[in-house]
Design goal:
There is one protein chain. This protein has helices spanning 38-48, 68-75, 86-90, 171-181, 201-207, and strands at 4-11, 16-23, 28-32, 51-56, 78-82, 112-114, 119-122, 125-131, 140-144, 149-153, 156-157, 160-161, 190-193, 199-200. With 212 residues, it is an alpha/beta fold. The protein has a single domain, classed as Metallo-beta-lactamase, Chain A (4-Layer Sandwich), CATH 3.60.15. The strands form 3 sheets. Strands 1-2-3-4-5-6 form a 6-stranded mixed sheet, covered by helices on one side.
């Protein structure tokens, strides 16, 4: 990974992987999918002396965004999401409930919206935005080509893909996202999903039943 370091913090009732992408040279830190436990995440950042620069959101389901508002306020960073996910981030009727005590945290007004192919320059990393609808219409992945890292959210898992039976989900779009977008990446790209363990594009190309 070179200067890139990844810390994985499973948070919330669904053990969502919140990732800290850290530049080992500057200690700048990008927070991806802060799904809950804001105090725990903040304490870790302060403990290690990380310098947070942004919050990246892969999609708007509650288990990926519950700590986002508090972290933005406490750490003074912006929230960045894909433009097609704006409606899901603010419309609480279209999301997953039942396990959320404080519904006020479900409304996330992102500070910046992205388009497919955008390149983010954050913490010394070039991050390409890949639109990967299927789990939701605005789901996206964050690809660091030089570091060979893919933060895949709930699009690609080890041996599986994200569910498509939630509002704005689509199996047809998921099939395209997996086979026509993610499987175009090199085999040695490490995949870090929203739940469960990491994998590689090569492993999934050969073993994932959703890959054609």
């Amino acid at each position: 990974m070179g200067k890139a370091q990844l810390e994985i913090h499973p948070v919330g009732r669904l053990a969502t992987n919140c990732y800290f992408l850290i530049n080992s040279e500057t200690q700048e830190c990008i927070i991806t999918d802060p799904g809950d436990n804001a105090a725990l995440l903040e304490n870790r950042i302060r403990e290690k002396g990380y310098k947070p620069v942004a919050i990246l959101v892969t999609h708007g389901h509650f288990d990926h965004i519950l700590a986002a508002n508090r972290l933005r306020e406490d750490l003074k960073v912006r929230i960045i999401a894909f433009k097609e996910e704006e409606e899901l981030l603010v419309d609480t009727k279209e999301r997953l409930f039942g396990m959320v005590d404080d519904e006020s945290q479900l409304v996330v007004n992102a500070d910046e919206f992205l388009s497919d192919g955008d390149i983010l320059d954050l913490a010394g990393f070039k991050i390409r935005v890949l639109h990967t609808p299927g789990h939701s219409k605005g789901s996206c992945c964050y690809y660091l080509e030089e570091e060979k890292i893919l933060l895949s959210g709930d699009t690609l898992f080890e041996g599986s893909v994200g569910r498509t039976d939630f509002p704005t989900g689509s199996m047809k779009e998921m099939d395209h996202s997996i086979n026509e977008v993610l499987m175009k990446l090199p085999d040695d790209v490490e995949v870090f999903p929203g739940h469960g363990g990491s994998t590689t594009i090569g492993i999934e190309r050969n073993a994932n039943p959703y890959v054609r």
